[in-house]
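#help-structures
NK: newbie question, is this the right format to request a structure? protein is Transport permease protein
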Amino acid sequence: MESLQRHFFGDMSVMFGRSMRHISRSMDTIITVTIIPIAFMLLFVYVFGGAIKSGTDNYVNYLLPGILLMAIASGISYTAYRLFMDLQRGIFERFHSMPIARSTILWGHVLTSLVSNAISVVVIMLVALLMGFRSSAGVLSWLAVAGLLALFTLCLTWIAVIAGLSAKSADGVGAFSYPFLFLPFISSAFVPTKNMPHIVRAFANNQPVNSIVDAIRSLLAGQPVGNNIWIALAWCFGILVVAYVVAMLVYKRRIS
């Protein structure tokens, strides 16, 4: 058992290193991922911010959680694309001919997604600080925010794995992330949901992004989180389990 674990983690570190080298050689992917969310943040704070009634004097504080989720939703599309290209180039077949744990090929891409999206999140938060973002959160609250963002990244990344393994074209790979990019717009990310029409408000209050945004916003403000944190965790763990199981089934079907 110990030898098996050592073999698995050793293989995974190799796959992770390979995928990270691709990222380090094309940092433009991280730059591209951060530019659009930062542009939205600048647009909403400096153009629309004065007209939006968010119930706070510092709109960038209200806006930031949704922008971070948008950045992650944008970043995972590159994971799907890299997986798709590995399949098209026959990389998977080469690795499968070697004595390695096969699932580590996927885990290498997943861990790379966590790291690259973390870099994007840090860059966006630095820009938000320059724009006036301030937080009274303690260390534990910041750790909770980091954990929630990492969990959200894992959820979307395993969905990206499904897309990367199932897509028939490069265009199809990129298109799957669009719904996740638009979900923050139909939530409390930009405006309070109480200002929305009844039907839209009902959807916004009962979709996963809304509870995650509210939980992160409360944590960063140093305020009581209430049930939002448990609803957010339930959504994330539920989506993660389903996405992981489906991804592994699709993977086994592709390599069989």
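mod (FA): yep, format's fine, and the tokens are attached above. The mean pLDDT is 83.
NK: thank you!
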